[in-house]
Amino acid sequence: MKVALLGLLQSGKSTILASLSGKAIPPVGSTKIEEAIVPVPDERLDWLTEHYKPKKTTYATIDCLDLPGFNFTDEHGRAAARRLINQIRIVDMFVLVLRAFEDPAVPPYRNTVNPDRDLAELRTELLLADLELVATRIEKLEKQVHKPTKTQAHDKAKLALQKKLQEAIESERPISSAIETDAEREMIKSLGFLTLKPIVVAVNVGEDQLNKKFDFTDRVDSTVPVTTICAKLEYELVQLDADSRAEFMADLGITESAASKFAGSCHSALGLISFLTVVSDELRAWPIKQGTVALDAAGKVHTDIKRGFIRAETFAFDDLKELGSEKALKAAGKIRLEGKDYVVQDGDIIRFRFNV
Ligand SMILES: Nc1nc2c(ncn2[C@@H]2O[C@H](COP(=O)(O)OP(=O)(O)OP(=O)(O)O)[C@@H](O)[C@H]2O)c(=O)[nH]1
Ligand SMILES: [Mg+2]
Q1: Ligand 1 pocket, 232 CB below 6 A?
Q2: Domains of the chain, with CATH numbers?
Q3: Which of 73, 119, 228, 353 is most buried, most CB within 10 Å of its CB?
Q4: Model pTM?
Q5: Span 29-88, pLDDT tens digits
Q6: Is the CB of 96 under 6 A from ligand 1?
Q7: Which atom of ligand 1 is nearest to the CA of 68?
């Protein structure tokens, strides 16, 4: 899973990412896109590691891109932002980082701290970039449809679709509302429209705002996860050893680590759940889309397992934790043999039976 952190100048993107990945913070004002792998904390894997004592435990990871901060206050800044945005059309989703912390040492964007305004500016920019992409496509396809090539009919369909998208954007409707069929979805898949990507809003709060609630439902759909994070504090926390960290978190009343909140929000925005495997001494979490069937889950682990799929021996993590052992689960009839159409549930522990 690839995620890009977007935000205005000095909103705290790099500090957030450093606190998630444990890597050092790149210098303020860096103009490069930085990349870091963030492990997804999972208490179930922690528990299972104690239980099975595998040689190796592999947590899911999120591949994060940290972009230089955007500055839409002048033409030069806008052009730079557009160039950067066009480089990240391949990501699965965006985390929009908004500054809410007050700090005289860090001059705020447009001289005031205003997360709501910043969110509006970021979303407008993504929309404008999509509008530009549509215009470029239309220009190209309008020339192409006059040529009597093999793809002429398909080109005409593509052009009609781009015009529908353009009309949607211009009348302030989301472009998703203009995509009606799977064939249309397929036609634009490779273009990477930005406003079709799921988003998470991450508000970088000050130490005095840890419990502050933010409501952006005037700006974004109510299904968009909103998470708060105090980047400065979280960065200090990751420098500590586990015991002191736990102590500090308890003192501050922080119940969930930033990494856990961050990963949870990203998974929820993408509609992901995880199943778990214990195979040849490796314990591992596999993120999949909600609604994935056992056959496709098998394919995640290995194409051979999908090809030779026989059954998925499945039990629930919660049941194992409650009953204490696989033997007890068996006695209670809680280990099931599921077929290829079984819809995998979050926290399922699966052993695939296959034959190749
Ligand atoms: N007080 C306070 N300062 C912060 C916090 N987060 C970041 N900063 C400071 O804000 C400045 C910018 O932080 P960065 O993490 O580099 O922000 P950025 O968004 O990556 O910056 P650019 O990439 O240059 O746009 C640094 O001086 C940080 O120390 C915070 O939660 N509280
Ligand atoms: Mg940065």
Answers
A1: yes
A2: 291-354 (3.10.20.30)
A3: 119
A4: 0.93
A5: 788 999 999 999 999 999 999 999 999 999 999 999 999 999 999 999 999 999 999 999
A6: no
A7: 23
